[in-house]
Amino acid sequence: MMDAVRWERVQALFHAAAACAPEERRRFLESECGSDRELLDEVESLLAHDEAAGGLLDRGLATAASSVLDGPSVLPSRQFGSYRVTGLLGEGGMGVVWRAERNDVGGIAAIKILRDSSLSPARRERFLAEQRTLAQLRHPGIAQLYDAGTLPDGTPWFAMELVDGRPLDQYVAATSASLAERLELFIAAGEAVGHAHAHAVIHRDLKPSNILVTAMGAVKLLDFGIAKRLEGNCGPETTGVRFMTPAYAAPEQVSLAPIGVHTDVYALGVILYELLAGKLPFTFEEAAPAEAVRLLLETDPERPSLAARREGGVRATRQQWADLDVLVLTAMQKDPARRYRTVDAFLTDVRRFLDGKPLAARPESFTYRAGKFLRRNRRRVAATALVLAAMGTLATWSAFRLRTARDAAMTEAERTRTIQRFMLSLFHGGEAEVAAADSLRVRTLLERGIRDAGALDAEPAVRAELAATLGGIYRQLGDFSRADSLLEDAARRQRALSPAEGDADLVRRLTGLALLRIDQAEYDGAEAHLREAMRIADQAIPPTDPASLEALEALGRVQLERAEYDPAVTTLERAVSLRRTSDTTTIGLAGALVQLGSVHFYAGRYDQSDSLNRLALPIYERLRGPRHPLVGDVLINLGAVRFQRGEFAEAERYHRRALGIAEQWYGPEHHAVASALTMVGRALVQQSRAEEALPLLERALQIQEAVNGPVHPAVASALNELGTVALGHGRLVEAEARFGRMLGIYRQVHGENHWLSGIAVSNLGSVAMARGDFAGAERLYRDAASRFTRGESAEHLNTGIARIKLGRALLRQGRWAESVVESEAGLRIVEREASPTVSWARAARTDLTAAWDSLRRPDMAARFELIDQ
Questions:
Q1: Do 701 and 801 have their domain in common?
Q2: Calpha distance 181→189 (Å, rounded)
Q3: Which H or E run contains 783?
Q4: How does DSSP assign 292-360, residue by residue?
Q5: Residue 301 within any structural domain of the chain
């Protein structure tokens, strides 16, 4: 957006420079423009066009302005690299966006083209800056950059993720989203902005039309066309021009004061205002420029609660509006120093609102905080009151019994019922509610529960419930032997009851036993229990019953472990759909989303996996707290996606958070701790920090063997990383032994053809390479690639890595043409699924350079040399 003052300055300099001798123009403009390179570019661009035949300004100011600012939507080419344009999507002030399909591997994308790129070098630089910005931002909430290039006429373009969604404001209106749903969407958008800030990028043009929401509720942030790099605290703009959307612009964008993360915080405040109130805090359509500036700099916005009451905004209670007003107006303070200091601080207060906790932005007040506590804990407070009342009643009754000592049989029956109630209340909730192992001495309580359970034989249904509860807790604590006997006992006792006494309970017992079998890697047994459970459920209970849903989701886990990805997706998508219509707590929904995300991860669909886990994370954090193991599970998944994309330091960060949660919750010897140790260790290995990784991985192996025995996939996972460390240090005998044992475990658990066996086979190929046995390595790599293709897909990241390894084995044998075929195929897969700088991509480009040089094609070799320079 070029304002009138700026345009007058451009015109004045143009006319003055045009009057100068050609040899004096550059010196004159550099003197007048100083450090304002954009101003210099604009004037020189006009001078160049003026000197061309039929100069630009000879056509009149209106025509010139139209050419500069609008430009025709003429498609300069139908082909952009591997993409073929199929239709127009939209136009902006700088570029045109087209829909395109990829010719080679399929898929769709959005192609953005800079129009009139030769007219303004400054606009061209902004376009390329957007391209560079997108290349460094990899986040599920940000539309991803796929490819970039330049047409023969010099027009730059880039291909990015095509987002099929609605602008945020339109989405919440069309879906009649509740207050909580609007805030969850807002948090998702804010997290994407926070990711950009973490990479030193401020967006500067946040507004609902740049935040799209898909039909599945995933949020995508778009349009970094005027984003700016943060360099410490951003100083004032030197150009005198601010590109912005006035309705969402911060005061400092108008006053040319320093901008920074606080600028995006303000825009997010405006967006939240609009989502809540149904209108913008300020509108400038009919205001003169000076009036618009005055409004923004001097006028405080109306409280969103008042605007919502008048405009029909979102429904909220009076107490909620009191906090919502504070949230929004703190973010929209005129003085940046009085706003939330970061987007994360803003989002933290939004989450505190959703959790019913006091806001950091609210002043301390006993009444305010006490009220928050009572509203947040109304059930616990009520339960405490009931317990106190019950204790009083029990004390009175006991005193009466001691005084009268009558009716001993009735007294004994009451004692049995009291024990029943005590035990069930003590252990009710199963694995989701198990407290930290050290702090509450869970194992001691469990031992006491088993010891006292004999008193419950008169109530078989209660005994079955208690055995299932105790077994579930032992399973969660990793004591599978005790869990096995208890869960088998629970299922046996439940079967002995008549169907009228609990069909849903029998489904639960069978599902609990199946989940244990999954943990024990006994997938046939798990499926048998689940098929029986689902048969009973189909006949006796609705599909939305929690017991039926738990069985369905457990079946999805079995299918995942067997690498039956398409059936697992069908099963779990059905579970998610049923959960969305029936689950009132949303914990079950979050669990189904996480499981579906795991299927997509192992199928190589990392974006889908990341998005599903990010949908589940705030649900778990809100309902279980930020230090719950369910949160840790999601952090493991998010870190795994980062790892697969070659972002090893980021993966380590996620996994260390998960490790801290597991150690605090379960103690140091739990299998979840071992799994997190393995994930941290593998991230360290990939960062060339093997010495740090080794003690973590050795500890992980020791725990997994103690919990699961010597033959278990978790043991194989730890062996994989230890073998990688040994290989990296040249200890080839040790590496071969680790990988060989790993292969034996996967064969025993999953059979001969599972894709996990391919990892072990590929690693054995790497040992052969290290020994100089290139023919042996070739054989093993071909075997691994075949396993990955069958078990995952021909386009999976694992397949790509195996083909890159195979290309290197062929290169070492002097089979250069064959090497090129494999290396190029592998590189194409890896670059699509991971960062272009990931080690496997660099290795492939190195090998391709060597192969093409050996084939005496320096022109082809140069393509790959330039990429890595």
A1: no
A2: 13
A3: helix 774-791
A4: HHHHHHH-PPPPHHHHHHHHT-----HHHHHHHHHHHHHHT-SSGGGS-SSHHHHHHHHHHHHTTPPPT
A5: yes
Q: In this predicted structure, what is the pLDDT of residue 449?
A: 56
Say whether 205 is catalytic: yes
Nearest alpha carbon to residue 281 among 265, 294, 300:
300
Nearest-angstrom CA–CA distance, 436 and 255: 53
At position 681, the amino acid (one-letter code) is G
Look at residue 735 and tell me if it is in a domain. yes
Strand duo 145-150 + 156-160: pairing: antiparallel
DSSP states of 94-124 as a string?
Answer: SEEEEEEEETTT--EEEEEEETTTTT-HHHH
Catalytic residue among 169, 205, 583, 633: 205
Distance, CA of 151 to CA of 141 (rounded, Å): 29
By residue range, what is the domain housing residue 818?
758-869
Question: Which DSSP symbol is given to 714?
Answer: H
Residue 731 lies in a domain: yes
* Token pair in block for residue 352: 């505190």
- Gyration radius of the chain's alpha carbons: 32
CATH code where residue 306 lies: 1.10.510.10
d(Cα 403, Cα 127) in Å, to the nearest integer?
A: 90
- pLDDT at residue 604, rounded to an integer: 82
pLDDT tops 80 at residue 557? yes
Beta bridge partners of 80: 83
Amino acid identity at 728: G
Same domain, 629 and 709: yes
Between the CA of residue 405 and those of 398, 402, 414, 445, 455, what are the distances in Å? 10, 5, 14, 31, 22
Max CA separation in the chain (angstroms): 120
Contact (Cβ atoms closer than 8 angstroms) between residue 116 and residue 123:
yes
Q: Which two structure tokens, joined as six digits, stand for 595?
A: 């499981």
Q: Are 511 and 468 in contact (CB under 8 A)?
A: no
Q: Which pair of structure tokens corresponds to residue 159?
A: 């291909």
Label residue 84 by pLDDT band (50, 70, 90).
confident
* Stronger pLDDT, 352 or 236, i.e. the higher one: 352
User: Which of 128, 160, 192 represents a domain boundary (last residue)?
Assistant: 160
Rounded CA-CA distance 799/784 in Å is 8
Q: Which residues pair with 166 in a beta bridge?
A: 213
Domain count, the chain: 5
The CATH number for 105's domain is 3.30.200.20
Q: Which two tokens stand for residue 122?
A: 């400054």
Does the structure show a pLDDT above 70 at 602? yes
Closest by CA position to 157, among listed 210, 100, 214: 100
Kindly state whether residue 524 falls inside one of the protein's structural domains: no
Q: Is 617 exposed, middle or buried (0-12, 13-18, 19+ CB in 10 A)?
A: buried
Residue type, 838: V
* 104-113, 303-312, 395-404, 448-457: least confident range: 395-404
3-state secondary structure 35-64: CCHHHHHHHHHHHHHHHCCCCHHHHCHHHH
Residues 179 and 311 in one domain: yes
102 and 16 together in one domain = no
Same domain, 191 and 258: yes
Asked if 138 and 144 count as a contact pair (C-beta separation under 8 A), the reply is yes
The answer to whether the pTM exceeds 0.70 is no
Nearest to 726 by CA among 681, 757, 758: 681
pLDDT digits (tens, 9 = 90+) for 690-699: 899 999 999 9
Which phi and psi angles does 647 have, rounded to 5°? -95, 75
Strands 228-229 and 79-80: unpaired
- Domain endpoint, select from 310, 344, 362: 362
Given a contact cutoff of 8 angstroms between Cβ atoms, the answer to whether 606 and 644 are in contact is yes
Q: Which of 300, 270, 138, 260 is nearest to 208 (CA)?
A: 270
333/215 same-domain check:
yes
CATH code of the domain containing 666: 1.25.40.10
Residues 338 and 218 in one domain: yes
Angstrom distance (rounded) from CA 34 to CA 40: 9
Identify whether residues 176 and 154 lie together within a single domain: no
Q: Give the sign of the dihedral formed by CA 179, CA 182, CA 184, CA 189.
A: negative
